[in-house]
Amino acid sequence: MIHRAAAAYVAICSAALAQLPAIAASDPFTPTYAVLDYEGLSGWSADDQQAALNVFLNTCGDMKDADWQAICHLARDSTDHARTFFEMFFAPVLIQDGTPAVFTGYYEPELDGSNTPSRRFRYPVYAMPPEMESGTPWLTRREIEETGILAGRGLEIAWVDDPVELLFLQIQGSGRIRLPDGNHIRLGYAGNNGQDYSSIGQEMVRREIYEPHQVSAKVIGNWVKRNPVEGVELLRHNANYVFFRVLEDVPPDAGPKGAMNRSITPGRSLAIDPAFIPLGAPVWIEKKGFRGMRRLMIAQDTGSAIKGPQRADVFMGTGEGAGREAGRMKDAGRLIVLMPIQRAYAMLIEDIQ
């Protein structure tokens, strides 16, 4: 089946290539492209491509271009031949712009909370107010908290017991709240106040509270608990404030929704810069350092700090353990995008021209 469909796929790709945008040669930041072979991918033969194919199938149906749609159709008939499928219909493309590769990790926080406020649960998680447009500059974190402009308007989704964990929930952009009865509220990103994000860890280093290697989420949390007054001021250094929405359609055992509005998968979903890598594309990563990785992942998410063709964020899962793993990750390496073959060579030709 997979061989009989190849000719039809090539015809579809040829038509799709005519719609590809040209690369502006005058742009000093124009990336370069190199088409590699699979023998040059370190660890390729040892990876579980079947696991990656299963994740690819979760979102490939949402990719709009004709060549991707054709590949997605073929993928559904290739579930017993995952490695052959990827090698037959994709070419590995190394995209570079002169900046070194950086891999970080992210996770879905899980906080203790309640549907009603109490002495313990007194930090509200807010939905976005109707008068605000996401990304448009609005009140700062300090102004929101000091004026109480959101309080008592029915915007409270829940209340949590830790302001630092709430901050990290906002940084991650999605998460779960564990209620006293054992149920959960799943939260998705709704928008932000349009103010710039500032790192609390970097601010602690600037104030000479800690050395860079000492800073972690747990260290920040413990310091704020020991210094409640100064801690509030420290957290307000980050003017950015994130609002949430309740996700009713995500099963408790599924991952949070990524940028493609589908659940993402720990260890196989990747946040990338869609200016260089199409959402939904397979991406081979060779990550060094902490828990080095050689595996095929799927680009299913984005992030405000993920910029450039060699920048990626690995989704590590849900909860405190995943958070610890993600927090230790800041590593070098390289990432290689698997592109439909004719699209890959068209990019290479445009680069040469």
Automatic annotation (TrEMBL):
<dbReference type="GO" id="GO:0004553">
    <property type="term" value="F:hydrolase activity, hydrolyzing O-glycosyl compounds"/>
</dbReference>
<feature type="signal peptide">
    <location>
        <begin position="1"/>
        <end position="24"/>
    </location>
</feature>
<dbReference type="InterPro" id="IPR010611">
    <property type="entry name" value="3D_dom"/>
</dbReference>
<keyword id="KW-0456">Lyase</keyword>
<keyword id="KW-0732">Signal</keyword>
<dbReference type="GO" id="GO:0009253">
    <property type="term" value="P:peptidoglycan catabolic process"/>
</dbReference>
<dbReference type="InterPro" id="IPR026044">
    <property type="entry name" value="MltA"/>
</dbReference>
<dbReference type="GO" id="GO:0009254">
    <property type="term" value="P:peptidoglycan turnover"/>
</dbReference>
<protein>
    <recommendedName>
        <fullName>peptidoglycan lytic exotransglycosylase</fullName>
        <ecNumber>4.2.2.n1</ecNumber>
    </recommendedName>
</protein>
<dbReference type="GO" id="GO:0008933">
    <property type="term" value="F:peptidoglycan lytic transglycosylase activity"/>
</dbReference>
<dbReference type="InterPro" id="IPR005300">
    <property type="entry name" value="MltA_B"/>
</dbReference>
<keyword id="KW-0961">Cell wall biogenesis/degradation</keyword>
<feature type="domain" description="Lytic transglycosylase MltA">
    <location>
        <begin position="110"/>
        <end position="245"/>
    </location>
</feature>
<dbReference type="Pfam" id="PF03562">
    <property type="entry name" value="MltA"/>
</dbReference>
<dbReference type="Pfam" id="PF06725">
    <property type="entry name" value="3D"/>
</dbReference>
<dbReference type="InterPro" id="IPR036908">
    <property type="entry name" value="RlpA-like_sf"/>
</dbReference>
<dbReference type="GO" id="GO:0019867">
    <property type="term" value="C:outer membrane"/>
</dbReference>
<dbReference type="GO" id="GO:0071555">
    <property type="term" value="P:cell wall organization"/>
</dbReference>
